[in-house]
Amino acid sequence: MAFAESCNFEKLNSDNYKQWKFNIKMQLLNLGLIEFVDKQEPVLDAEATEADKHNFELRKAKALSTICLSIDENLKSIVYNIDSPAAALQEIENVFEPRSRARIGALRTKFLNILFLLSDTISSYIGKISQTAKDLENDEIAYQMLANLPRSYDNIVMQLYQLDDKNFTSLNVRKSLLAEYDSYSP
Fold first, then answer.
1. Which neighbouring-strand residues pair with 136?
2. What are the beta bridge partners of residue 71?
3. Which of 22, 18, 37, 164 has the alpha carbon at shortest distance from 96?
4. Cβ(79)–Cβ(88) under 8 Å?
5. How far apart are CA 59 and CA 97, in angstroms?
6. Per-residue confidence at 138, pLDDT binned at 50, 70, 90?
7. pLDDT number for residue 174
8. Among residues 26, 84, 181, 182, which is most buried (max CB within 10 A)?
9. Which 8-state DSSP code applies to residue 10?
10. Alpha carbons 113 and 64: distance in angstroms, whole number
């Protein structure tokens, strides 16, 4: 069966990572290959037969090829030279997950600039907004709290931007801003 026949979802591109991630996991589940992308790669028993080893390697290769063939041509360089399905998904995640402040900033800009296009339906328009909001999650609230403060808050804003990802939460930003405000109050 050709890949195009077995995979009926859009290939990974620069705009659809979250949906692609869900779809590729469902595809691997459907093919019985999900074990190859779990956090811990499967290992054969020491007593596995040659046939078992061969079958294992074939299934692992099928999982990797399923992932790689579901990537747009101009993004395949992300997974060149990777020979493990789990490592391929991890590398793709490293590129597309919004972990860095720069990536979150880019998603925020994308979110704020979503327009209704002539080619959009109401459902697709709402879907674009919903998907980008999911991508941003809780960090968006923290960024919004800092976005339009007066210049007198610049020092605290810069300090908060220096927090590591674990501590850059809307709750911590809120606490810091309230403490800063209280220090200005008579």
1. none
2. 12
3. 18
4. yes
5. 27
6. low
7. 85
8. 84
9. P
10. 35
Neighbour tally for 115: CB within 10 Å: 7
Return the SS3 of 75: helix
Query: Tokens in use for 128?
Result: 């674009």
Which residue reads 């909001």 in tokens? 133
Closest CA to 82 of 125, 41, 138: 41
d(CA 136, CA 93): 15
Written as six digits, the tokens of 131 are: 């998907």
pLDDT in tens, 27-78: 999 999 999 997 677 778 888 899 999 999 999 999 999 999 999 998 899 9
**Quick check: helix, strand or coil at residue 118?**
coil
Rounded CA-CA distance 65/84 in Å is 10
Give the pLDDT of residue 12.
93
Contact 66, 27 (CB under 8 A): yes
Q: For tokens 């779809």, what's the residue?
A: 23
DSSP-derived secondary structure letter, 9: S
Pick from 116, 138, 118: nearest CA to 127: 116
Alpha carbon separation from 124 to 18, 115, 117, 121 (Å, rounded)? 15, 11, 10, 5
Helices (H), the chain: 3-6, 17-30, 50-69, 85-96, 101-112, 122-136, 139-147, 154-161, 170-184
Model pLDDT for residues 140-149, shown as the tens digit of each residue: 777 778 877 8
Does an H or E element contain 99, and which?
A: none
